[in-house]
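hey so u asked for the seq, here:
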Amino acid sequence: MESILLYGFSSIPYCTSLYALDIHGVQVTENVGRTGVITGHYLRDRSQRPYMQEAVPPWGFLLSDAYISLYVHRPSLTALQCIRRDAEVLGYLARFRFA
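ran it, C-alpha cells below
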C-alpha cells in the first residue's frame, strides 16, 4: 500500500505525510512523505488522537480541528477520507499537515 501512497503523494498540495488506518484507528501502513517511506509508524494506534474522536460526516471526509502533534510537537491538521466498499467503511486515508 505504501507504493500506492507514494505514487499519489506529489499530487496532493500542502501535505506532510499520508498513511492508512483501519476502522479502529490503527495505522495499517507506514507514513509516506516527501522523502519516501517513513518507518516506525506501522500498527501505531491513533484511535485516541483528536481527529479520530470527531464524527466523520456522511459524505466521508473530515478536516480535523487544530491539535498539537505528538510526533512533531507542532500545531497540526489531519484530513480523513473514508475508504469504502459499497456502503461499508473499510478504513481511512489520512493526510497530515503541520504548521
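Residues 26 and 45 are 4 Å apart (CA to CA). The mean pLDDT is 93.
lmk if thats what u needed
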